[in-house]
Amino acid sequence: MTADTKQRPDAGAESQTDLQLVRKVRRGDRSAFDLLVIKYQSRVGAIISRYVYDSQEVMDLTQETFVKAYRAIDRFRGDSAFYTWLYRIAVNTAKNFLEARNRRPQPTADAEEAEGFDEGIRLRDNASPERLMQREQVQKALQTAIGALPEELRSAFLLREYDGLSYEDIAQILECPIGTVRSRIFRARDSVDKHLGPLLDTM
User: Fold this and answer.
1) What is the pLDDT of residue 141?
2) Per-residue confidence (pLDDT) for residue 145, from 0 to 100
3) Rounded percentage of the chain residues whose pLDDT exceeds 70
4) What is each CA distance from 189 to 45, 55, 114, 194, 198, in whole angstroms?
5) Which end of the chain is more exposed for a tag (fewer CB within 10 A), N or C?
6) What pLDDT is recorded for position 5?
7) What is the tens place of the pLDDT at every residue in 140-178?
8) What is the arithmetic mean of pLDDT over 34-61?
9) How far apart are CA 195 and CA 116, in angstroms?
10) How confident is the model at residue 7 (pLDDT cuts 50, 70, 90)?
């Protein structure tokens, strides 16, 4: 083994670690599942907060997500990354919560997420009062644009743009063909661009 080989990170190390923890959980090691909770609880909470605004409800649904994952751990086959599987449970838990209360999913981008959006609309300049006002306008417009998307477009868009998931992972989470995922993301981007275009043209 060369020095270069020794230094090269193992691309599958994180997934392998998750799989090892899952195997331990299946053997009755509850502490192994606690490690998975610690590793992913903030990310699961962030997912759910895109659908539900109330902080206490987000906490409750995050806990419910992990309870469901623990009970269903034997059904995780390892065909996808553990986080992809957990993500699907989190999204479904949030949607089921809203449907049970006849509530439409909330617009799913807040100001912090909007500021991290990389499709040509992030403002990188000095925080002058004028620029801060422009940034706030873009953030609000982005939130409105994403919130106006149909649910199937919004879900695909956020999974790609905010989480950076592959089309394959998104297809598994949304349980639809990759071609459908690509179409939804294209349509969502087009809709958001049309909504933001007039505002950005004036800046």
Assistant:
1) 77
2) 83
3) 71
4) 25, 29, 14, 9, 15
5) N
6) 39
7) 777 788 888 888 888 888 888 877 888 988 888 888 899
8) 88
9) 18
10) very low
Residue type at 148?
A
- Going along the chain from its start, the domains and CATH numbers come out as 12-100 (1.10.1740.10), 111-201 (1.10.10.10)
| Confidence at residue 143, expressed as pLDDT on a 0 to 100 scale | 79
Q: Return the HEC string of the chain.
A: CCHHHHHCCCCCHHHHHHHHHHHHHHCCCHHHHHHHHHHHHHHHHHHHCCCCCCHHHHHHHHHHHHHHHHHCHHHCCCCCCHHHHHHHHHHHHHHHHHHHCCCCCCCCCCHHHHHCCCCCCCCCCCCCHHHHHHHHHHHHHHHHHHHCCCHHHHHHHHHHHCCCCCHHHHHHHHCCCHHHHHHHHHHHHHHHHHHHHHHHHCC
pTM score, whole prediction: 0.58
What is the rounded CA–CA span in Å between residue 156 and residue 181? 6
N-term to C-term CA, the chain = 55
Measured distance CA(51)–CA(115) in Å, rounded:
18
User: What span, in angstroms and rounded, lies between the C-alpha atoms of 56 and 177?
Assistant: 35
Q: How many Å apart are CA 132 and CA 34, to the nearest integer?
A: 41
Instruction: Output the CA–CA distances (angstroms, integers) from residue 83 to 60, 103, 135, 180, 186, in the order listed.
Output: 19, 27, 32, 22, 24
